Amino acid sequence: MKKVGVRLTLLVSVVVMSVIFFIPSYLPFYQALPGWLKQVMPSKGITLGLDLQGGIHLVMEVDEDRAVEIAVDRSVVSLQDGLVDKKIPVESVMRTGPTQITIQFQNAELKAQIQKMIDDYPFYSETESAGSANRLVWELREAEAKRIKDSAINQALETIRNRIDQFGVAEPIVQRQGLKQIVVQLPGVKEPKRARDLIKETALLEFKMLDEDNQQNLDLPARIPKDKEAEILKEAEAKLPVGDQILFERGIDKDTGREYRVPYLVKKRVMLTGDVLSDARVSIGQFNDPYVSITFDSKGGREFERITGDNIKKRMAVVLDNTIYSAPVIQDRITGGRAQITGTFSMQEANDLAIVLRAGALPAPLKIIQDLTVGPSLGQDSIEKGMQATLFAGALVLVFMIVYYRISGVIADFALVLNLFCLMGALSALNATLTLPGIAGIVLTIGMGVDSNVLIFERIREELRLGKAVRLAVDGGYDKALLTIVDSHVTTLITGAALFLFGTGPIKGFAVTLCLGIGINLFTALVGTKVIFDLLNQRPKVEQLSI
Amino acid sequence: MLEILGKTNFDFMGKRHLAFIFSGIMAVLGILAIVQISRGAANLGIDFAGGTAVQLKFDQPIRIDEARKVLEANGLSNAELQEFGQENKLLIRLKASTTIEEKVADRVVAVFTKEFSSNHFVVDSSTEIGPTIGQKLQQDALIAVAISFAGIILYVAARFELRFGIAAALATFHDVLAVLGGFYVLDKEITLLVITALLTLAGYSMTDTVVVFDRIRENLRMRRRESEETIINNAVNQVLSRTIVTSLTVVLVLIPLTVAGGEVLHDFSLALLWGVIFGTYSSVFVASPLLLLWPKSAGGMLKRS
User: Fold this and answer.
1) At the N or C end, where does chain A have fewer CB atoms within 10 A?
2) Which residues of chain A have pLDDT under 70?
3) How far is B187 from chain A (nearest CA, A)?
4) Residues spanned by the domain of B100
5) Between chains, do A388 and B260 touch, taking CB under 8 Å as contact?
């Protein structure tokens, strides 16, 4: 490394590499490049963090216990169907605990027959404790409950990914964090509320029958204002028939534009769920009102045909996440595996509904535990202000160094600029995300870069004061400052590494730029500026140094 | 040769008792701040305490007392409001403890849309954080800080002596405490970004201290006749001009960032600015004198033969 030529080549190649890596980060320039050049160039550079470009950062938790309950509920439905198919009359099949199914029957002789049904449900075991003659209790095995919980989060991840893909966001991040958390980052989203709703909606589509026979006894009001649901539920609670529930249809009054709710008595039993959908599309009805037409897969189509055939002239509710979209009367057996979901929604709502139906339901509701939304304007503001202030600050430092150290100051300034180039290049090469704390890391790096040069220069001045010749003074200054610079950088590197390994989110972003910056700093301070001094001192007669 | 300081010979070590008193007060203030933070009595940002923050940008100026009245009338009392004057920006913060329901951000937006229908606004940012997340962040930050301190003590102890490591760590910790204490006294919000600033200044202060220690080490090896106090004093004086020049340049960077960097960067830069000033002070007046306090001060590696 003693030869100036070798170091100079190293320096130049590092700069060239940095520039090449940085170019994709500066889009206007990158896009102007000819196509063949783009092919050989790296295609991705620095991504701006949400705090700089706007967007949403969501952390959600999957309600795993609810996922297990939902799975047990499904078993209940299929068990009911199985009993009907085998013509075994029972009084009720119900979920009676988070993981428990209770089957009640009148005829004690049926017990053996029903007990045999468990062969089809290997994930359940019969509990001995409830050994009544007219009752059987099944319990979901623990291993299965655990499997459901595990798969719930994976399924949720998959579903959210599907939805976001269809929503259309550039470079979304959907990741699992820890055991049951999901992190979603949508940079640059213009309609944060819509995106959030789209992600969060469980989108469990169910077809349920209305209990018209019992509806009269309850005297439910025909129409109630929004927000009064709880009162209705409370009033009706005592009179509610077993196996029934009250659900509400959402509507908007055409004259006043107010939202209202229509209560319906609905049988809890789920006839069909959204699992059997193969497609969902938005169509426009004859009055220019959008609706969603759905297509069942072959199994679902047959099932739908059977259900509609069995319930002609009865009303069936289309329920999404426990809200009724519509409750049409079944006019005839519906063949061909198609159905429509109508209701009062705008074109956009219909669109979003089609997206969530296509992408499938979430296995359980999600709870948002962290929601950061930065509007694009704030992002723009903070970039502009931050940039202006940083540029101004940078200019101050550059000028100060030149005033204080003259020509040597120019060399130090060169090192600083070199520093920034390399740092940007390295961040681009790593496709790092630049956030505000990341910029803080850069500021600290620049501070340290200045410090390294000041240390060296002060040492050189000391050597000069001792009366040494210029070349010797420069070498001596570098040698003596070397250890100090290494020590101070290593200690900061230790801090940076600890923050990188154990910090989260923004702190990590800070640590990345800091660690990179320190490495680059060492290089520019010890190799970069020294080369320039050596070049200057290669002149035959060096009597003075401007420092 | 332009010099801010020529060759100096200040008696820094002689002033150490005064410095210890001042630093003691700052440290106590900082410890008080930490106690209050852990009790939840300090002004913790919602990223630690959990809660909701919404920032709105209006077309026309908005009166802060009217905004408060409107929020209270709609059942959102205990909101903290902050204005960013020139740009008609309003920051509304609701801590998790003051409200239990979800979707507070949506409600705030709805209230303003309804009550200030003539004054159009856009949502600059909205943040909702569950209390569990805040606790996790706090924990992670603490672990990271503890480990980095342990690492630094070990490294400095290995390169110098144990007393250097401990003195450096103490001095750095003192700077963090001083700035934290200042923020607590001024009732400034302690956010994740402020914590990042504290970490940055810890890094800076550490560098500063190591530079001074390096010179002390060098002098301890060379000049063995003089008393330790004189050696340390000389070392501090020798690096004084670099200490001043470096600090000055960093301050030059931070002042524009604090004044004109925008609301997001303001508190961050302010914390750093104080930190640099304290960091410079502490490497001269705290870290170096602490070396003298160590019993039987000359250790193995730097033993004078």
Assistant:
1) N
2) 1-2, 128-131, 379
3) 22
4) 51-129
5) yes
- Cβ–Cβ of A378/B265 closer than 8 Å? no
Q: Choosing among A200, A381, A419, A451, which should be mutated to test the B contact, i.e. which has the most B CBs within 10 A?
A: A451
pTM exceeds cut of 0.90? no
Residue A113: C-alpha distances to residues A41, A107, A121, B297 (Å): 71, 11, 14, 89
Beta bridge partners of A293: A281, A340
Determine whether the interchain pair B141/A507 forms a contact, defined as Cβ–Cβ distance below 8 Å.
Answer: yes
Residues B90 and B201 in one domain: no
- CATH code for position B203: 1.20.1640.10
CATH number at residue B98: 3.30.70.3400
Answer positive or negative: Cα dihedral of A331, A336, A341, A342: negative
**CA angle at residue A340 from A336 to A343, to 5 degrees?**
170
Domains and CATH numbers, chain A: 4-47+376-536 (1.20.1640.10), 65-143 (3.30.70), 205-340 (3.30.1360.200)
Per-residue pLDDT of A451-467, as tens digits, reads 899 989 999 999 999 99
Pairs across A and B, CB distance < 8 A: 224
Tokens of A443: 């500021």
- Report yes or no for ipTM above 0.85: no
Question: Nearest Cβ partner of B203 from A385, A504, A514?
Answer: A514
Which among B2, B137, B200 has the least Cβ separation from residue A404?
B2
Least Cα distance to A419 among A453, A445, A437 occurs for A445
Instruction: List chain B residues with CB under 8 Å of A483.
Output: 214
- Using an 8 Å CB-CB cutoff, list chain A residues near B102: 368
- Chain A environment of B250 (Cβ under 8 Å): 447, 450
Say if residues B165 and B187 touch (Cβ distance below 8 Å): no
CA A25/CA A29 separation, integer angstroms: 9
> Considering only alpha carbons, which residue of chain B is nearest residue A461?
B1
**Which chain B residue has its CA at the smallest distance from A507's CA?**
B196
H-run or E-run covering A8 = helix A4-22
The 10s digit of each residue's pLDDT in B27-62 is: 999 999 989 888 877 788 877 777 888 888 888 888
Q: What is the pLDDT along chain B (305 residues), one digit of tens a residue?
A: 677 777 788 888 888 899 999 999 999 999 999 898 888 777 888 777 778 888 888 888 888 888 888 888 887 777 888 777 667 888 888 876 555 456 788 888 888 888 888 888 888 888 888 777 677 777 877 888 788 888 888 988 888 888 899 999 899 999 999 999 999 999 888 887 888 788 878 888 888 899 999 999 888 888 777 888 888 999 999 999 889 988 888 888 888 888 887 777 788 889 989 999 999 999 999 999 998 887 665 544 454 43
Tell which of A444, A480, A515, A516 to mutate to test the B interface (max B CBs under 10 Å).
Answer: A444
Give A432's DSSP letter.
P
Q: Across-strand partners of A340?
A: A293
